[in-house]
Structures are given as C-alpha cells and as structure tokens.
User: Fold this.
Amino acid sequence: MRKYELRSVRTGSLSGAVPVVGIVSAGQLARMTVQAAISLDVPVRLLSQRPDDSAAMVTPGVEVAPVFTREVLERFAAGCDVVTFDDELVPPQVLRALEAAGHVLRPPSGAKLYAQDKLHQRVGLAGLGLPVPAFRAVEGPGDIEAFGREHGWPVVAKAVRGGYDGRGVWVLADAAAGERLRREAAGAGTQLLVEQHVAIVRELAALVARRPSGESVTYAVVETVQRDGMCRELLVPAPVAPGVAREAAALAGRIAEAIGAVGILAVELFETAEGLLVNELALRPHNSGHWTIEGAATSQFENHLRAVLDWPLGVPDLAAPAVATVNVVGAAHGGDPHAALAAALAVPGARVHLYGKSARPGRKLGHVTVVGDRSDDARERANRAVAILTAGKGG
Ligand SMILES: Nc1ncnc2c1ncn2[C@@H]1O[C@H](COP(=O)(O)OP(=O)(O)OP(=O)(O)O)[C@@H](O)[C@H]1O
Ligand SMILES: [Mg+2]
Assistant:
C-alpha cells in the first residue's frame, strides 16, 4: 500500500467565498470528486472509515472514524457548508436527524431514500406511473411462491437495503428456493422484495445532474455491460434506436424532478422488447458515468460538485463519436495492476484510472477509458489495456 503524506486541512471558511463541501465515505467516487474539486479549488472535507480508503489517501482534509455514528456525522457536518455522499449507506433516519439539526444535505434525505430502499423506489416510481418490473414486498411465507405462480419462474429476489455489485440479488428457480431464501433473510433481519425476471435486451444508464434550483443536464445514454451482476463495460452512446435513447433521457429527467434529486442521479434501466423499465437509482456519481471524465465536456464528478453547490452546470456533450470504458476488476489469479501500468499505457489512447486499492478477486480496482471515432475500436483498446492490468503475475 502506498502512503500519501497528510497535509493539514486548508481552512475553508463556512462564511467565505467558496463553500466547504463535505463528502461522507472515501471510496473511488469520492476520490474522483476530489480530483474535480482540485481544479475548481473547492475546499473538500472527507469522512473516511479507514485511513487507506481510496479517497482518504489523496485528500488532505480527511477525518477518520471507523463507525459513522450520528455524533460523528454531526461533528463532521458542522465543519461543512454542504454535505454529499460517496455511497448510499448512512441510514435514512440519521440523514433526517442531520437535516433536522440544520445541516444541508445534497441530495436531501427524502431523495436519497429512493436509492437506499429498493421497495420505496419501486412503490414511488410505480405511483408516478413510471415503468418498473412487476414486484411485491415479501412479508411472509408463501409470498414468493404466490408471486412466482402469477408471473412465472424464475423470479428475482432483492434485499430492500444494502445491496451493491449484485450482492443482495438472487435469481430463484422455484418456490422451494424462494422459501429457503426467505427463511435465511428473516433470520438475518434482511427485508426482501420479489420481482419478475426481466428478459433484458440491454442494460442502460441515464445520468442527470440537477441543481436545487431546478436546472438540470442529461448525459448521453450508456449501455452498461454486466457480468456476474457487476458492471464491466460502458459503451457510449448506447447502440440503441434514437427513440429509446430519447425515452431513457426523458425518464431520467422526470425522475430527477419528481424525487427532488440534487447532484448526480443515475438511473439504471432495462431495455426489453416491450420498452424500458427502471431498475434502480443512485444519487451520487456512479460507475456508469466514469466515461464522462474524458468522454464528456464536463465530467459527472465536476457536475456533481457544481450541482451540490447550486452553481451553473457544465455542458454534458460527448467529446468524441464513441467512448468505451472498461472496469479493472481483480481477477482470480490476477496481479497488482500497478505492476502492469506502464505496459497498459502503451495501448494507444488508453486513459488509465487506478483507485489505490489492493488487488483482490472481484474488487473494482480502476477503469480504462478510450475515446475515438468507432465504438468497436475504442472498446477493443480499452479491453486490451484492462487485460494487461489484470493479467496474472508473469502473465
Ligand atoms: N428483475 C431482474 N431481472 C433480470 N435481471 C435482473 C433483475 N434485477 C437485477 N438483475 C440483474 O442483476 C444486476 C444487479 O441488480 P441491481 O442493480 O438491482 O443490484 P445492485 O447489486 O444493487 O446493483 P449495483 O451492481 O448497481 O450495485 C442487474 O444489473 C441485472 O443484470
Ligand atoms: Mg444496479
């Protein structure tokens, strides 16, 4: 693990010209947001669980607390003008308490809940008349079986709270599998919902940046290529009919408005033969927007900052006809990507981002973006660089 010297916190002033932005949690999203803050010279304070979390290693204003209790968050927020987030993990009741105490959360707790609670999201969006997969809450024995009988097997069960990277998503073949999972979840105190297994043509994502005052910008719609429940590649613009791209962008804009999103809102979508369905929402910079660093006129990270500060947003336009981003995910027998960095940089146009994380199988360690004239070429080069970064020792 490389060490970074921690400098003293630059004294951003709570009453000064440039507001202090606090970021809760210090993963790679916070790290890339800090990168954008450096260019604008926006003072950032960071709350990290560990001193060696991705963003904590490269941010001078870092406070480390192993557990984000309400007291820890209160103290942290008191030193910030605006508080934003790298993840969805601070419990909703704690967010509400912070707001009640007068702290400014962007996004606000009411909007954030749509990303924290998949049942709230499904019920809320369905109530707005927006397309979501058929679903129901799992409240007792027999609920999954009844849903499967009505909608057909397999079905998909999801943890209502706390899932990520496909952890917390189960494909259930039959009623017996459903009942086993339900019991296990009940034992662990995990609330479940069950939904139809969607015949997905493509997975898409639409990103919006929205200011509290209402201005918003929408990025080009992205195809997110998933493997094992994890996003592996981004292809921009998504190879979909123009009508589908327009509809995806319009859906994202409507959702941002309806839930009062502030900052980046990422809307994960399923393209099906019958049209689009909303899968889930994230109210923070999102993996599906990493391409914007090189591929858009303004990155999602800069626009997230501008939005949470209620500053004018940057144009989201594509910087090239085609952009491909491929995640660097730790391979089963893979080595440390740092060891292969120079070799990967020899791939023409490969823009490599490493998050400062130690290599473990299945862990997102970085990403590579290539912008170009042709999607297949950009995709091939980005994959080539990632293959070099994740190759085994001596490979
Ligand atoms: N109803 C469904 N039908 C078919 N496939 C599904 C369904 N729901 C989820 N999936 C698949 O599982 C993946 C992960 O699901 P989801 O996005 O809900 O979980 P997550 O773990 O919260 O996500 P993330 O990986 O975005 O953190 C989806 O990208 C999709 O490939
Ligand atoms: Mg998802």
Summary: The pocket of adenosine-5'-triphosphate (ligand 1) is lined by residues 133, 156, 158, 163-169, 195, 197-198, 200, 203, 226, 229-230, 268, 279-280 (CB under 6 Å).
